[in-house]
Write a structure and sequence with these properties.
With about 450 residues, the protein is α+β, with helices and mostly antiparallel strands. It is built from twelve helices and 19 strands. Strands 9, 12, 15, 16, 17, 18 and 19 form a seven-stranded mixed beta sheet that branches. It has a four-stranded antiparallel beta sheet with strand order 1-8-6-3. Strands 5-4-2-7 form a four-stranded antiparallel beta sheet, with no helix packed on it. A hairpin with a 5-residue loop joins strand 13 and strand 14.
Amino acid sequence: MAQVEVTLPKMGESVAEATITTWLKSEGDTVEAEESIVEIATDKVDSEVPAPADGVIKEIKVNEGDVAQVGDVIAVIEAEGEGAEEASGSDQQQESTQEETAAPAPAAASSNNGSTTAPAAQGHDFSKSDRFYSPLVKNIAKEEGISVEQLDQIDGSGQNGRVTKADILGFIENGGAQKAAPQQKSAPASAPQPKAAPQPEQVKPAKSYGDDVEVIEMERMRKIIAKNMRESKQISAHVTSFVEADVTNIVNWRNKVKNEFQKREGEKITFTPIFIEAIVKAIKDFPLINVSVDGDKIIRKKRINIGMAAATPSGNLIVPVIHDADQYNLVGLSKKVNDLANRARNNKLKPEEIDGGTYSISNVGSFGNVMGTPIIPQPQVAIMAVGSIQKKPAVIETEAGDTLGVRHMMYLSHSYDHRVVDGALGGMFVRRVADYLEEFDVSRDI
């Protein structure tokens, strides 16, 4: 039976790792192709990984609770098919062939000593180490001539001390790779590699909070949210502009059509799709809001993908994305908003449905708040918060003169990255959104 590696799949351009939450299968279990074998969780959504082929799970490489990088091998399946021995040994044979081609002299020296294995191959026998190394780290170690013994001495900055790509590249930049080659060539295969003296563990004293408090450990999602919010504040220079909009026309129109809409479509029409429609129109007027930043480059996005913050049953927030929001009419936006919000509340979103947003909206009015200062979801450069709609006395301009009346008013809060969005652009954009809302056609059909 041939061996098939199960790797952590790519789940979006901004997702680099995932936590293994639950293995649905155990070693020795029989699985079918496309059958879910493990549940994973990212900072955006929970998902499942299917088996790539029929067979038996031979080995589980990443334990529950551990973090794996995209592309890491998390399990090995013995798949049904011919050439099992050839398939299982193909990587080893290829590795040996490459080493013999690249370094014939050490191979000859080994044969004089009666050994049939090249020292380089012994130096990269990862089975001798009790640490886990990702395929990427292993490949870098082989290419740069870093032995397993030297890898074991690198202090990993990843989960549970795991060596990351940045760790091994830093080791190479500090001269680690250059020091590795002479040791492997001059020392005999049987010579033990020197190891650094173990460092004593520094145990931090337990912190006391007193008897009159309750200590609550952060759940995984809350830790991820905290990390992302902190990083966004460190990355983007946040500025917020505010505008108050008269949405009386929208309130009256929705009251007029909502019963007919629900009877015809089988679902409610909320204010959110109307707000998204106005934001899409304003993005077309000011396309430099629909960008991201890569170093000193501004990446202008041609697609308008609107992220909408939604609350989960646990109280955490998730941001599903309406891709190509400019291609929907108001009915289509309403259905899309309702569908994504419902599945967000039930943890049924797919990885691709929370990825690729180019601009976001957060309805803080649903919590009774009049305004807010939202934090920008990276790598976007702006987000808008819409507050609660409140009746207020306001001056109404008429042909006969100004008069006072009761109007439905709402604050728009626009947070933007001042590295690339100046106050003029940020302020004009939120004002344009308000204009589209105030100019809403009350005679509009839906």
